[in-house]
Amino acid sequence: MRLTVNGSEHELDLDPRTTLLDALREHLGLTGAKKGCDHGQCGACTVLLDGRRVNSCLILAIAQQDARVTTIEGLGGHPVQRGFLEHDGFQCGYCTPGQICSAVGMLGEVERGWPSATGDDDPLSDAEIRERMSGNLCRCGAYPNMVPAIREAAGR
Amino acid sequence: MTAATRAIGAPLARLEGPEKVSGTAKYAAEYRQENMAYGWVVPSPVPHGRLRAVLADPSADAIAVLWHGNAPELAAADDPELAVLQSDRISYRGQPVALVVAGTLEAARRAAQVLQLDIETLPHEAVLRTDHPEVYTPDTVNPGFPAESSAGDVDRALAEAPVTVDVTYTTPALHNNPMEPHATIARWDGDDLTVYDSNQHPSGVAATLATVFGVDRVHVVTEHVGGGFGSKGTARPNAVLAALAARVTGRPVQVALPRQAMFSLVGHRTPTIQRIRLGADTDGVLTAIEHQAWSQTSRLYEFAEQTAVTTRHMYAAPHRRTGHRLLRLDMPTPRWMRAPGEAPGMVGLECALDELAEQLSLDPVELRIRNEPHTEPETGTPFTSRHYVDCLRAGADRFGWWGRDPRPRQQRDGDWWIGTGMAGATYPAMAQPSTARVRDLADGGFEVAIGATDLGTGARTILSQIAADALGVPTGRIRIRIGDSTLPQASVAGGSSGSASWGWAVTEACRELRRTGGAEAVFDTTDLIAKQEKEGRHAFGAHFAEVRVDAVTGEIRVSRLFGMYAAGRILNARTARSQFLGGMIMGMGMALHEEGVLDPALGEWINHDLAEYHIPAHADVESIDAAWLDEHDDQLNPMGSKGIGEIGIVGSPAAILNAVWHATGVRVRDLPARLDKILPHLPT
Ligand code: FES
Ligand code: FES
User: Fold this and answer.
1) Is the ipTM beyond the 0.90 threshold?
2) What's the gap in Å between the CA of A15 and the closest CA on chain B?
3) How far is B454 from chain A, CA to nearest CA, in Å?
4) What is the DSSP string of B178-240?
5) Which Pfam families match (chain B) (predicted)?
C-alpha cells in the first residue's frame, strides 16, 4: 500500500489491521506521534489528515492511501512549536506532539468558523482554547502554559 | 559569590525542548531494532487462583507463548512482582500469566487474545475495611517510619477539650497514569543485555535486571521519560518480560503496556480510610491530634503507605497519636504515587482542621498560625527552616483571602454558589547518595555525567545550571549526560529528591575538578549524606482555592487555585513553576475527578482507561498560579534546595474540598467530590 507522510510517498507492506499510528511508529520510524491509550481517549497520537486533526490510533492505515498525513516531524518550526518552547508548554513531552498537532488543526477549524461548546464571541479566548484542546490530555498538567503558547501562535 | 550564582535560579528553558516539540525526543519504545519482535502481556482474568495450563491457538502467528510451564527460571529480586511467569499462583487480576511474542504488534495482540487459560479460581477479597479480622499493624511504614507514634494522653485530652472534631475521610484508589505507558525494548548480545526502558531510575533498573538474569553487564537507556509520578521508580514487570522474551527468542523484543494494564501492573495509590480526632481550647489552640489510617496491600508484597506521618510534624499539640493499619487483599500491589502518604494524609488532616475552624468560628488561616510548632512536635528536633506561617500569610495576601465571610453558602453569582478554601502543604526535603563525573573537554566545555533521569522535571537543565555555577562558567559550556545506567550511579528520580541528590554530587565533582585542576573528577556523596541529620527537613506551602458549584447541576469548577511555597532555593524559576502547577492540577484531579472504581466481584477497577478514569483536562484548569518565598537553608545541600515535584499535590485537594464546603455547606468526606455527592444536599 501507499502512504503519503510529510510530503513523501512510502510503499509499505502492512497488515490490514495496522493503525495509522502503528504504521508511522513501527514501520516508518516516525515516532513523534505517541501512543498514550491506543483507544482514542488521550490525543497523544494526534496527526493531521489533509489538514484536519485526527487520533491516528483510531484510523486504519490502509484506508488512508489517498490522504496527506502530516505529523509533528513535518510541521517544520510552526509558530505553535515555538510558542510551546517559549512558554514551557510541556514537561515530560509525551503529550506534546499530539498537543501541537491538535493546536495546529484547531486553529484551522477556527479559521473555517467551526463553533465549540463554549460559544464565546471570541473563538480564541482562553476559555475557547481550553475547550477546543480538551481532547488532548496532559498528565504533567502543562495546560496553563499551553494556552498562551497557542494564543500567541494565532497572532493574539 | 562569583559568576556562579547567575545560573542557578534563572528561568533557563529546557535543554531538550527543541527535541520534544519536534517529535525527535526518543522514548523507550522508539528505539527501532533489526528483526524486533513484539511481546503482549496476557493478564489474569481472575483475582485469585492457579493457572493449570495454557492452550495456544495454532492459527495465531506466535513465535513463542511463555508461561510458568516453560519460562526460564529467574533469580529472585527484592520485589516478588518481578518473578514473572515463575509460578502457577495468581495473586491479583491483571497479573501477567503469559507473554505472547510475535513478529508484529497485531499478531502478538491477536494471539494473546485467543490464548486459552485453564485456571482454577479461588475465593478472593477486594474491599478495604477497618473491621476486617485480618487488619494488622505493620512493623514500619514507608520509607521506614514507625507505624505508630504517641505522646501525652490523647484520650483524656479529647475528653476534656471544649471543642472536638471526630471525622473519617476516605480516599479511593488512584492511578498514576503517566502519559507514556511503561515500555521496554530488550536486546541480548551474548550475555550483555541492553534495555531501552521507561523508568525513574536507570541505575536501579540495571542492578535489578542483573540480579534477575544473573548477568554482569546490563545497559539501561532512559534518555526521555514520558512521566512516572512514582510508577516508574523501580523495574516493572514489562522490563523483565521483555528481557526474558528476548532471551528465549533470540530477537530483540518490545513490550509496551497497553493503557488498561497501567491500572493493575505498575502500582497505584492505595485507597485510604482515615479517622482524625482533634481537641482544642476555645481559642483554637490544639490540645490533641490523632490520625489513624487504614490502607491496603497485596498478597505478594507489603507496601505500607505512610498516610499519617505528616501529621507528626505539621502542628503543635501536647497530646498526639498516629497509627497505620494494613489489610492484605487479592488486589494489585499499591506503590508510590506522587507524594505517597502526604497527599492522602493531608486530605484528612487539613479537612479536619477546616471542620474545627468551622466549629470555632475561627479563620482557617488563623487557626493554623495558632498551632505553629517551634520544633518537630514529636522529637523536638529543630527545623532546618520552616516558613509555613509566612506561606499562609503571603498566600492569603496574594489570593485575596482576608475579609472572607467564614459562613458557608453566602455567595451566589447566577446559578453558581461560590466559595473559597485553603489548606497547608508539606513535603520532606531528602537527598540520597549519588555519584557524578565531570570532565574538562579542553575546548572550553565540560561534560557532566550522572545516571539520572528527567521525567519532565527539568533535571537535565537544572544540572547544567548547578554545574555552571560550581565551575564558574556559563551554562552554554556544560554538556549534560544522563539517562544511561553506564554513567556514574544516581539515586531514583523520586521523593522529590532528584535535584538535591544529583545536584549535590555534581557540585562536589565540579569543585573537586577546580581544586585539582585535573581533566576529570568523580564524586560520590554517600559519606556526606550518611553524616546528615534526617529529621526536621521539610518544604512547606499553602494552597488557596476558589470554586463555583452549579446550584442546579452540582457541577464543580475550580475558578482559582493558588499555591505559595517555601521550598528552599528554587533552582530554575521556569521549570519550578511548571512543577508546582502540575502537582496542583493533579491535586485537583484527586479532589474532583480521580477514582479507581472497584467491582468487588471481579476484583478489578472497572474504569481502567482514560475515558472512564478522569484526569483533569484543559477545560478543567482555569486561573492557576504558584509563587514562592525566597528561602535560604544552608543545612540541606550545597544548593540549599528542597524538592518541589510533589508538594503541589499535598494540600491542594483539601483546599478545594474546603472551598466546596464554603460554597455549598456540604462536607464531602469521601473523595472525589462529584456532583452526585453534593446535589442532594443543595437547597432547591
Ligand atoms: S493514543 Fe490515540 S488517542 Fe490515545
Ligand atoms: S507534558 Fe507530560 S503529559 Fe503533557
Assistant:
1) yes
2) 8
3) 8
4) -SS--EEEEEEETTEEEEEE--S-HHHHHHHHHHHHT-S-EEEE-S-----TTTTSS--HHHH
5) Ald_Xan_dh_C, MoCoBD_1, MoCoBD_2
